[in-house]
């Protein structure tokens, strides 16, 4: 016979601990109130009503404590009913006590127990909710005293302070717990990524490397397979070595990590060891320009051309240099291509960089390869 599935708690962690703590407070406050009700029975105007109020307080406390301990009390329906019931039980002091007791300094029937809903509202809605719930209890005490007194002011100030302080502390505590949970999840994801990286390195990358070396030695059709294996090996290495930026920093990119991911068997990448943060859209355009430059090398520099990619930070700008040892071209070729309507380099590389407020210098000569230097001011 299968066991029934366990129902997940609406609240966990620090919220659950705080709710359980306030339930303990309510029980302790109830004990004080019941002791006073029993102790002063013979002095009350209507002692039977006083005992009834004590029973109602016990039922309310037991219900709220049970829900709180099970993680089911973090709802406005529960807290709202508790606030109303507590205020009503406080007002029940009027028929129980004599006029002299109400105005002579005797505490209300609910006394310290009445602070419970204020704390609960602060748990659920923060400082403002705690302040409003405390104000509700203060109004009930004000009616019992039939007006203002130093004691009601004292109680009201304490309730306001409790509501605001508890609400503020709970807000920060929950936020800190959420941040800690996020960090723990990121660490777990990073550990899993590193585990997969080790597995890929020991398996897939080794096989791709073997295929690359064997195919290169065989030549012919196997040479093309070797090149494809080398490209996939480089892509996998870039994938497992790059680390995505945290979600809260999505508007900022690490340009060094982005360029490092472009490393392959024919592309040597040299970047600073420390991150090079740039504006998100700015970084995307720089990487797109670099990819366009690498595409041009693959398409026009020759099959055996190698590429060196260099990233530097100079003063308030970043500089990216793409240099290859390919066949090169005549200095007038770019101008001729633009005149003929072939705008590949002009738009995909120089256009992107200049739109960022930077500058792009392209130098080449036949047989000496090509060098493209892109400089972009940091935002």
UniProtKB/TrEMBL annotation:
The chain crosses the membrane at residues 18-37, 49-70, 76-94, 106-133, 153-174. InterPro entries: DUF5931, HATPase_C_sf, HATPase_dom, Sensor_HK_TwoCompSys. Residues 286-378 form the Histidine kinase/HSP90-like ATPase domain. One of its GO terms (molecular function) is kinase activity. The keyword Membrane applies. One of its GO terms (biological process) is phosphorelay signal transduction system. Pfam families: DUF5931, HATPase_c. Residues 14-178 form the DUF5931 domain. Keywords: Kinase, Membrane, Transferase, Transmembrane, Transmembrane helix, Two-component regulatory system. The keyword tRNA processing does not apply. PANTHER family: NITRATE/NITRITE SENSOR PROTEIN NARX-RELATED, OXYGEN SENSOR HISTIDINE KINASE NREB. This is Signal transduction histidine kinase. It comes from Jatrophihabitans endophyticus.
């Amino acid at each position: 016979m299968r066991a029934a599935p366990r129902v997940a708690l609406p609240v966990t962690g620090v919220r659950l601990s705080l709710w359980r703590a306030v339930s303990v407070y309510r029980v302790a406050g109830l004990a004080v109130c019941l002791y006073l009700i029993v102790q002063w029975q013979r002095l009350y105007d209507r002692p039977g009503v006083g005992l009834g109020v004590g029973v109602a307080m016990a039922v309310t406390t037991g219900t709220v404590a049970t829900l709180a301990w099970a993680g089911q009390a973090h709802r406005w329906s529960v807290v709202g009913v508790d606030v109303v019931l507590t205020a009503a039980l406080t007002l029940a002091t009027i028929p129980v006590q004599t006029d002299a007791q109400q105005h002579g300094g005797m505490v209300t029937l609910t006394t310290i127990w009445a602070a419970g809903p204020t704390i609960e509202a602060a748990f659920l809605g923060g400082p403002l909710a705690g302040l409003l719930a405390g104000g509700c209890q203060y109004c009930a005490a004000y009616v019992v005293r039939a007006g203002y007194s130093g004691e009601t002011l004292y109680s009201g100030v304490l309730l306001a302070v409790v509501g605001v302080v508890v609400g503020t502390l709970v807000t920060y505590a929950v936020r800190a717990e959420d941040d800690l949970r996020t960090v723990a999840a990121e660490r777990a994801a990073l550990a899993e990524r590193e585990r997969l990286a080790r597995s890929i390195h020991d398996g897939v990358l080794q096989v791709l490397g073997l295929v690359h070396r064997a195919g290169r030695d065989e030549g012919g059709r196997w040479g093309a397979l070797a090149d494809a294996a080398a490209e996939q090996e480089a892509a996998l290495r870039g994938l497992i070595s790059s680390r995505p930026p945290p979600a809260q920093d999505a508007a900022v990119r690490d340009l060094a990590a982005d360029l490092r991911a472009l490393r392959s068997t024919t592309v040597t990448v040299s970047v600073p060891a420390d991150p090079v943060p740039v504006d998100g859209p700015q970084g995307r355009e720089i990487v797109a320009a670099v990819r366009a430059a690498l595409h041009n090398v693959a398409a026009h520099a020759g099959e055996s051309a190698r590429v060196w990619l260099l990233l530097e930070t100079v003063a308030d700008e970043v500089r990216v240099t793409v240099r290859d040892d390919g066949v090169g071209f005549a200095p007038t070729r770019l101008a001729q291509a633009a005149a003929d309507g072939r705008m590949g380099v002009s738009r995909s590389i120089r256009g992107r960089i200049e739109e960022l407020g930077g500058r792009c210098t392209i130098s080449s000569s036949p047989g000496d390869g090509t060098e493209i230097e892109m400089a972009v001011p940091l935002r």
